[in-house]
Amino acid sequence: MKIEEIFTSIQGEGAFCGYPTLFIRLSGCNLRCAYCDTPNAQIGGGREVDPLLVAEEVFRSGVTYVCVTGGEPLLQMHDLCALLPLLNDYGHSVSIETNGTIDFRPLQDLSTICMDVKCPSSGETSDLSLLTFIRDSDSVKFVIGTEEDICYAHEVMKNYLIKGVIFWSPVFGSDSHMIISYIMEQKLPVRFQLQLHKVIGVK
Questions:
Q1: 23: region left, alpha or beta (phi > 0 left; psi from -120 to 50 alpha)
Q2: What are the mean pLDDT values of the chain's consecutive 10-residue runs (203 residues total)?
């Protein structure tokens, strides 16, 4: 599998925010979001590593929580189908961050899913039909930078029954108060969340 980097840090977003987490960042992405904060992972370079060797590195870390991110991890579905059972067998809790363009169901028995629904300011779109398959244990994230993004996210929530936790996060450095005000005015069942790792200045 193509690995951009493997590192341990505090999880900065999503359902496991705040937990020490080992991140497996896979290389390659099928989107080019305007605000992407990991452009090096878009290209698809990285280093080739056997899934078994990746698993061994996770075991040595001693960290319980594992986040598979990218890039777009599901582009390497075959390798993930080999890696995740090994991590499960050793008691690791695994989450996958995906851009919502590839069917994640083959991996749902092996991990939780965080689907990042792309809003207009990203310049990209997600496959909203995948929201149907989000479970209570999964989550959905909207990264919001503009009023148009807010209206889009709200409209998606009106049109799709989303079972998992819904996060609204500002594009880093954008107007958080605009988002919070809207959530409060509309009494939306969403969890506002800043990217903790950027706030405290860690990777």
A1: beta
A2: 96 94 97 92 91 97 97 98 97 97 98 98 98 98 97 98 97 92 98 86 79
